[in-house]
Each structure stands twice: as structure tokens, then as C-alpha cells.
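pls design
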């Protein structure tokens, strides 16, 4: 059923995306009072849901936000218990140019930043030996050249995964331990998924803003505060059902049912895939197919705090070649932007869901084994540990969305098509170009609010 794609709504959505109107003015767009008398129930108080809620409230709507957790923010949440910020979900503003809405939001709350330097990196081989700068340069060049080669060889309709395409077209990339490490530490981390599952043609086809990535040393989740200010947010209210039709919507939560004229559902793709929310009527086939087809992977973060550093405190990142692929293969050194002796380890690709299922103790032991392969007996006992388990989190079931082999850009984008003029999905998974980012999530919230306002007119 392709018809809705060519409807008036479709053209409006396309025009909205093309205009970039929602990018230019975070917190800004408001048609005051246009939605007075309209009640909107928003499911999920992450960045996308809060962006939609804030925009609709400014336009006069009565907005009720229902959130399963006992906090707002979803996959944007800063834990301060170690001293410096530990970003449980999003850690970087990717491409912090002035056009990036996340940067605009962060500037608006007076955030402070540190640029992370991707090339301030030391890498260790499978034996724990540091590799030379020249060898690292070769690895980076070979990784880039393998991906460029794939890009130039494949047609847009190619249905192979990245690993499959490499096997067919550049098998050396998979047999060279250095390039294999880079495919995991760079590509699998950025896509939040194994190269065996990510689309070869689409893995690098999304859009980016300019400038090197930054971490927000004053806490990334501060950007939520102005959006959430003054909203009616009902925490600890997991939604189990959304009924929608000509008469409006009924959203069933653990705290009772809420009625409204429209519903915006911003829950993560993992929650939609798990079927935790019963839609009545069921979601249209096109939407359900896209939910099934789009990928949702995980990324595991483990922060280990030590009394003393046993690593070079000037180096920003450590790469460690590990087996299996994806196991604690990339580390951020907090000493490059804080006084605390913290190493933040990352597990990615197929290993992340394995790590997510470990207890914090098992995960720590697993990661320490990797560190000991490099720093041997110098590795101390951590004095504090913070671990994430996104794949098993019932309000996310993963970290972020990715294009699977065989999916298209429209697999994500069409999820934002309004359903029966009553129900709107938003969230990072509904925008191909900026998926898996905070700015993408924000844009989809604004887009859902705009589409709803058009419907309500
Ligand atoms: C480990 C990790 C690292 C990341 N790194 C980066 C990064 O460096 N830079 C970047 O830009 N982005 C990064 N991201 C992605 C970014 O965090 C997300 O794209 C963005 O925060 C998603 O916002 P959202 O509103 O779409 O979803 P969410 O923030 O997940 O919001 C959805 C909300 O719905 C709630 N919910 C779920 N189920 C129910 C239910 N049944 N009833 C009611 N509420 C429910 C959830 O609790 C949540 O609050 C990262 C994400 C993760 C997990």
C-alpha cells in the first residue's frame, strides 16, 4: 500500500523536511493558540516526545506526556555519581555546528564542551602490543578504502550486508586484524550493529552536520530542561495500549486510561518491535513491515574508576583488538577532560547484546581481562563501576536504529507517516538522514508536532 506516500500529507512532510524549518529554530516555532481545545497524549518523555510536547503546548494544545520510567530523557541521561558526567545513552554531539539543533539546545542552557579528537588514538594488537603510528595510519587508510570501494561498486538496490559485500569485493578487509578491528570500533560503534546485519549501501548514506564531535562536560541531558519546563509529565506510567479512531485516542497506562484527540508515540523502535504496546486497530501493514525490517542494535558502556591511572593520561582513545569482534575494543580516557581516573569501555556489534546480559560484576571482569592483555599487572581494581544494559532494558530493548541489509531509506522515513489522522510515531528511528542521534530525535518530535497541527487545522 503505497498510496499514503503521495497524499497531501506526504507532500507536506517532504516540504517540511526539505525546508529545514524545524532545524533552524529549536524552542521557537509557535502558532500561538492554533491548537486550543485539542488534547494530545504523548507517549515517552525522551528528546523526541518532549520536543513534540513543547511545540504543541506553545501552539495552545493541552498536552499530557506519559513516561514509563521514573525520569525523563530516555536514551539521553547523565549520571553524576562518579564525579564527572557518565552519559548513559548519548555521549557526543555529533557535528556540533550551529545548524545542529542539539548544539543550539545545548548552547541555550550554557553548556560547556570538549572536542574529542578521533586521531588522538593509540591501538594495541591481539597480543596487547602497541602498534606504530604508521601501522595505524595504514589501518585507517585500508578501512576507508575498503568502504569507498564498496560504495563505488554497489547499486542502490543491493541487498547485501556490509560484511557480505566486503567478503565478495574486498575480502582482505575481513582477514586483516587491524581493518577488522576498525570495522568494529568505528563502523559497528557508529551504526550500533554488527557489520553482518548492516546494509552495505546505506550504512554510510545518512546526513551529518559539520565540525568534530564534542562531549558536554556540564551534562548532555541539561538540554531537556527547557523542553520539559511546565509540561504535564506523568512518570512511572508505562503504556500498555493505544486505541485510536474517529472519536480520538485512549492511552492505557499502569496508572489508568487517558483520553485525547491525538496521540504521538515516541517509544524506541525496540519497544515497537517487542509489541509491548497493543495498538487498536493494529498498526497499518506498511508501518508494521517497516518496524520489522528496520534494525535496532545495542552499544554497551562500562565506566571503570581507578585510584591511579595505569595508562597514558594524555591519550584520548585506546583501541584494543579483541576476540570476539566488538568486545571492549574502544576506550575513552576521561583524564583528557576531567581529573578522575576513569576509562570508559565500549562493546559493540554482536558482542554488545552479550555484554548487556552480563551482571555488572561479570561485565567488569570481562573488561578487565581485556585491559590486562595490554597493561598486565598494572591494571588496578576499580573503585567504582557504572554499566549500561540497553539490550535488556524493557523501555528500549537496544541503543539505536540502523538500516538492515535489504531495507531502504523509506523504511525509517515512512514510519513518520500519520496513521488514521490520529496517531503519529516519532523518535530517532523515524528519520533516515539523522537516525541514531539526539538531533535526529529532536527533529522528528518537531516534525510530528507539525504534522499533527496540520491535521488539526
Ligand atoms: C548507548 C547509546 C549511545 C548513544 N550515543 C549517541 C551519541 O553519542 N550522540 C547522539 O547524538 N546520539 C546518541 N545516541 C542516540 C540518542 O541517544 C537517541 O537517538 C535519542 O536520545 C533518542 O530519543 P527518542 O526520543 O527517539 O527516544 P528515547 O530517548 O528512548 O525516548 C523514548 C521514551 O519512551 C519511553 N517508553 C518506552 N516504552 C514506554 C511505554 N510502554 N510507555 C511509556 N513510555 C515508554 C522511554 O522510557 C523513553 O523515555 C546513543 C544512544 C545510546 C543508547
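designed seq:
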Amino acid at each position: 500500500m503505497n498510496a499514503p506516500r503521495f497524499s497531501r500529507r506526504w507532500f507536506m512532510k517532504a516540504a517540511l523536511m526539505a525546508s529545514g524549518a524545524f532545524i533552524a529554530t529549536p524552542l521557537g516555532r509557535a502558532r500561538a493558540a492554533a491548537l486550543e481545545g485539542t488534547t494530545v497524549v504523548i507517549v515517552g518523555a525522551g528528546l523526541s516526545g518532549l520536543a513534540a510536547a513543547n511545540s504543541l503546548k506553545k501552539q495552545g494544545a493541552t498536552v499530557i506526556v506519559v513516561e514509563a520510567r521514573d525520569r525523563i530523557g530516555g536514551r539521553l541521561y547523565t549520571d553524576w555519581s562518579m564525579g564527572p558526567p557518565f552519559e548513559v545513552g548519548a555521549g557526543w554531539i555529533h557535528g556540533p555546528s550551529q545548524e545542529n539543533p542539539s548544539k543550539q539546545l545545548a548552547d541555550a542552557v550554557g553548556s560547556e564542551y570538549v572536542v574529542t579528537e578521533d586521531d588522538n588514538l593509540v591501538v594495541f594488537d591481539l597480543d596487547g602490543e602497541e602498534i606504530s603510528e604508521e601501522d595505524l595510519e595504514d589501518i585507517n587508510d585500508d578501512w576507508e578504502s575498503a568502504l569507498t570501494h564498496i560504495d563505488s561498486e554497489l547499486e542502490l538496490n543491493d541487498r547485501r550486508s556490509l560484511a557480505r559485500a566486503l567478503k565478495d569485493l574486498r575480502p582482505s578487509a575481513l582477514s586483516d586484524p587491524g581493518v577488522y578491528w576498525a570495522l568494529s570500533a568505528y563502523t559497528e560503534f557508529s551504526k550500533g550493529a554488527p557489520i553482518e546485519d548492516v546494509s552495505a549501501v546505506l550504512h554510510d548514506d545518512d546526513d551529518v552536520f559539520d565540525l568534530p564531535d564534542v562531549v558536554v562536560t556540564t551534562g548532555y541531558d541539561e538540554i531537556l530542561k527547557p523542553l520539559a519546563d511546565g509540561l504535564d509529565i506523568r512518570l512511572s506510567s508505562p503504556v500498555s495500549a493505544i486505541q485510536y479512531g474517529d472519536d480520538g485516542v485512549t492511552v492505557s497506562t499502569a496508572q489508568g486510561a487517558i483520553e485525547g484527540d491525538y496521540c504521538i508515540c515516541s517509544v524506541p523502535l525496540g519497544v515497537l518491535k517487542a509489541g509491548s504496546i497493543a495498538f487498536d486497530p493494529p498498526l497499518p501493514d506498511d508501518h508494521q513491515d517497516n518496524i520489522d525490517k528496520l534494525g535496532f542494535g545495542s552499544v554497551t558502556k562500562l565506566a571503570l574508576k581507578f585510584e591511579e591511572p595505569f595508562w597514558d593520561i594524555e591519550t584520548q582513545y585506546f583501541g584494543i583488538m579483541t576476540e570476539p569482534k566488538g568486545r571492549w575494543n574502544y576506550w575513552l580516557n576521561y583524564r583528557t577532560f576531567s581529573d578522575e581516573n576513569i576509562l570508559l569501555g565500549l562493546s559493540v556489534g554482536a558482542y554488545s547484546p552479550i555484554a548487556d546480559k552480563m551482571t555488572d560484576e561479570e561485565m567488569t571482569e570481562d573488561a578487565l581481562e581485556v585491559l590486562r592483555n595490554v597493561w598486565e599487572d598494572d591494571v588496578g581494581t576499580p573503585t567504582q563501576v557504572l554499566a549500561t544494559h540497553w539490550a535488556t532494558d524493557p523501555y528500549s530493548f537496544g541503543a539505536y536504529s540502523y538500516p538492515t541489509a535489504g531495507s531502504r531509506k523509506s523504511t525509517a522515513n515512512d514510519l513518520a507517516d500519520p496513521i488514521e489522522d490520529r496517531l503519529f510515531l516519532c523518535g530517532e528511528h523515524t528519520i533516515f538522514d539523522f537516525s541514531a542521534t539526539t538531533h535526529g530525535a529532536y527533529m522528528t518530535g518537531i516534525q510530528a508536532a507539525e504534522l499533527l497541527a496540520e491535521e488539526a487545522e
